[in-house]
Amino acid sequence: MGATVPMLVDIRMLRWLENITILSQVYGTSALSPSWAVMIALINGYRISEGKSTLGFLKRLLRRSARSALNDITTGHNHARGTYGYPAVTGWDPTTGLGFLNFAKLRKALG
């Protein structure tokens, strides 16, 4: 799994950014990353309050322990700007990564 493709997606993710004079939409990993940072910070806070250590690196945890918190996306593609992209398939794929997060399940799996 390279760094040029997503590990996770959020199909609800659309951010409106205001840049002084223009309002623009942002999709994708750059929009998802801040939300994920908040969710992981919340889970780490819960863990610390229970006397546990913080999560550390997430890649292995997401692939093993937290699979139940991810909903696999198996249809669609990322054919962006008319170029060839990748199809969504069962399991990890370069279009949707490991899938779509359910925060309550993630907290339970990693908490």
UniProtKB/TrEMBL annotation:
Tell me a GO biological process for this protein. proteolysis
Among InterPro entries, the record links this protein to: Peptidase_S8/S53_dom_sf (IPR036852), Tripeptidyl-peptidase_I (IPR050819)
Show the Gene3D superfamilies listed in the entry: Peptidase S8/S53 domain
Q: Note the SUPFAM superfamilies from the entry.
A: Subtilisin-like
Supply the name of the protein.
Answer: Uncharacterized protein
Domain of life according to the entry: Eukaryota
Show the GO MF annotations.
serine-type endopeptidase activity; tripeptidyl-peptidase activity
